[in-house]
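Justification of computing resources. Each target in the renewal requires a structure prediction run like the one illustrated here; the chain below, 425 residues long, is used simply to show the kind of job we budget for.
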Amino acid sequence: MRIAIINWSNRRVGGVETYLNTIIGELSRSGHEIAFCCEVDEPDERARIELPDQSLTWCVAGMGAEGTLAALRDWRPDVIYSHKLVDPDLEHEILGIAPSVFFAHDYNGMCISGTKTFKFPVVQPCSRRFGWQCLAHYFPHRCGGLSPVAMLKLFSLQSRRLENLRSYDAIVTYSNYMIEELTKHGLSPRRAYNFPHYAPAAGARGKPPAPSRASVVSASLMTEDAGSQSLVSQKDAKVALNLLFSGRMEYLKGGHVFIDALPEVAAKLDQPLRVTFAGDGREREALQRRAARVRGPKLEIEFTGWVEQSKMENLLTACDLLVVPSLWPEPFGLVGPEAGLFGVPMAAFDVGGIPDWLSDGVNGFLASGSPPTSEGLAQAIIKCLEDPVTYAGLRQGASEVAQQFNIKNHLTALLEVFESVLTAR
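Resulting structure tokens:
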């Protein structure tokens, strides 16, 4: 099968491009011919998505839209696998070239700002269907900026994207929440597919989770002294617990809420905390200032910046708990299953697609997302860590749940969708 992959960039910028970097290789190894089409070759500081040898690639920034479309037509793909494009007109033209499948990674075409989140008077997910009525909520709920001109331009852009969505032969996504959003916006359930995503932390695949420091302490709670057993508490052991935030440092990712929750967590657990923020973004400096105000003898907070996969695997190996404080309805939240491959439990808000991989008492605990608060997040973190027996069960559950999200299941389901659209055409 000839498969043309479409994305705005050919650089490994974020989660979409990380996904493409893996799935392209898997499709090639399965015997399919791959070509890649993008709008830009940037940002320069990020590595390019890896393509199989001899794969053709076309970039609008270098060839122009017409040249790129002509090259794609001449290649004659069997199917187009589209992801994120900035220009809806270009997307519309590509749709006419071959049977097309779209991966809905986010809410483009379903929200003026693309975040599906009210920011005022409290931050909480928005459940509205996109339409002209959204214009009446944009300013009162601080959905985006304060420019009427920008609001109208965004509304027009997202309306065109929604038209394009309805023209795809099939749409795939990775959570029940996203399926509900797609069908709410008029996409036929017969053309919208939800199938298992995959966790790409290859270094952990197939290995038992490495023991974290908390679990080592948990395993050592019972010691023998002169023939009688005595209980050594985790608190007395004074072993630092490692908590991790991994992701973009943007307001709706909730890093500030996590920081606000830490003093309560430290006080309740009465144990040293070592908290790592791995990632970068516009909010990083603000988060660092906020962290400086809560640091203390038992609370260490480090900001690493953006990290490569190998370093992220080192962080997960040493991690006791992943915290996902996202305030917006995450379409999925791949960082959770990635951590699960290392036997790392999670604490997160009950928003978007997160409940698809996080079950209360199985591999972590959820805090209410209506609305998300630092107090609620603190309690979820505490429930994960305060009892050694519960924690040991969560580690086992994290590993078991993560095994569902493997590349084999994902690739099989994806190829079935490709075959179905080819048959329908």
